[in-house]
Design a protein that fits this description.
about 280 residues; two-stranded antiparallel ribbon; 9 helices
């Protein structure tokens, strides 16, 4: 009989250290954390190559990486707490600090990055869009790695499906469960990987000097349009989304898509003037 689904039963932990007298409560290293960290590491290496081509000192990149790490994590955490579970976290504000328990929102990360880059650009007297165009390339790659982390966590998946590539998430539903779901983490992951390849090639095709705002604009339009469409087959992340025509992820994506179209239009006007 031909297999009509994929059984996914990967534990989210790479390894677990037991509870001991010097390690109270134990400790675990998770695939999600590793993939999240790899997003920053690979991003740094790619930007190192880009900054070297443009003659930007490595210290500037080091400070940019610091801004990115802090504002991405803070923004992603606050985004989850305030967009998806505001009632709980406003009543238990100290739980906002418990990042290890899970709960990071990509829209919150996007806002955090924008704020962080604003302060970075002011400090180094760089144009905001110059920085965002280069950040856009590595953000797309990080999106791929984070969604693969979601897959390893068996989370953020889609509706039930009879398609042959449907996944049965054993870690969520237990042994014996026979209903497969759309692996929307994989759909998004490979779409973001394709976006990364497009942006990276676009940068080098224009000899490291694309029209200002073009890369950032394409990132916003393509990434958030992908997110908007895939949300239609995702299971709701929180209960209040069950009664919504568009879920929270889609609502938050709309202004980012509009912003992207504005930036692409602006960049094309710049190209027209140059020609």
């Amino acid at each position: 009989m031909q297999l009509s689904y994929i059984v996914w039963n990967i534990r989210p932990e790479i390894f677990i250290l037991p509870d001991t007298w010097f390690l109270v409560g134990g400790f675990s290293v998770r695939w999600y954390g590793l993939l999240f960290a790899l997003g920053f590491i690979f991003g740094y290496l790619i930007l190192q190559k880009i900054f070297k081509k443009e003659g930007v000192p490595i210290k500037v990149l080091d400070d940019l990486a610091t801004y990115m790490i802090i504002f991405t994590i803070v923004g992603a955490r606050l985004g989850h707490c305030l967009f998806y579970e505001p009632g709980y976290y406003l009543s238990h504000p100290l739980d906002i600090l418990k990042i290890w328990e899970g709960g990071l929102a990509s829209h919150g990360a996007a806002v955090g990055i924008l704020i962080g880059i604003y302060f970075f650009a002011k400090q180094y007297h760089k144009h905001f869009l110059w920085v965002m165009d280069r950040i856009a390339i590595v953000v797309a790659l990080a999106g791929f790695l984070i969604r693969m982390g979601n897959l390893m966590n068996s989370e953020i998946f889609g509706d039930a499906t009879t398609l042959p590539w449907g996944f049965i998430f054993v870690q969520n539903f237990g042994e014996g469960y026979t209903i497969a779901n759309h692996p929307t983490q994989i759909y998004e992951a490979f779409a973001y990987l394709g976006l990364f390849v497009f942006l990276y090639r676009y940068y080098w095709k224009h000899n490291g000097a694309p029209a200002e705002g073009a890369l950032f604009g394409y990132l916003l339009v393509i990434l958030w349009s992908i997110r908007f469409l895939i949300e239609f087959i995702k299971l709701p992340q929180v209960d209040f989304e069950n009664t919504m025509l568009l879920n929270m992820g889609q609502i938050l994506s709309i202004p980012l898509i509009i912003m992207g179209f504005v930036l692409i239009g602006r960049s094309r006007k710049i190209i027209t003037k140059k020609n």
